Recover the amino acids of this structure.
């Protein structure tokens, strides 16, 4: 998670132990209207209750110009 201002507390349980994870491989986010390999999805999550607080694509530049 590069240079992102992420949540410091879980909105669901109030936990303050925040972790990071990523979903990759075949579970990538793909563009809707152009050929691209897509991007891994990264998550900010609560390590107490497992709630996913925020999610991002790792390479947002791949989605420029994809408005339908």
């Amino acid at each position: 998670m590069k240079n992102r201002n992420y949540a410091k507390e879980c909105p669901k349980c109030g936990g303050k132990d925040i972790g990071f994870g990523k979903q990759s491989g075949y579970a990538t986010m793909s563009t809707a209207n152009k050929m691209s390999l897509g991007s891994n999805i990264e998550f900010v999550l609560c390590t107490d209750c497992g709630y996913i607080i925020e999610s991002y694509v790792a390479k947002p530049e791949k989605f420029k110009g994809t408005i339908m």
